[in-house]
Amino acid sequence: MSKTRKILRILAKTYPEPETALTHESPFQLLVATILSAQCTDQRVNIITEKLFADYPTVWKMVTLPLPELEKYIRSAGLWQTKASNIKKTCQRLIEEHNGEVPADQRALMALPGVGRKTANVILANAFQIPAIAVDTHVLRVANRLGLANSKSPDHTEEQLMKIIPKKDWADAHHWLIFHGRKICKARKPLCHACPLRDLCPSSTALETDPQEE
Question: Does the predicted model carry a pTM greater than 0.85?
Answer without folding.
Answer: yes
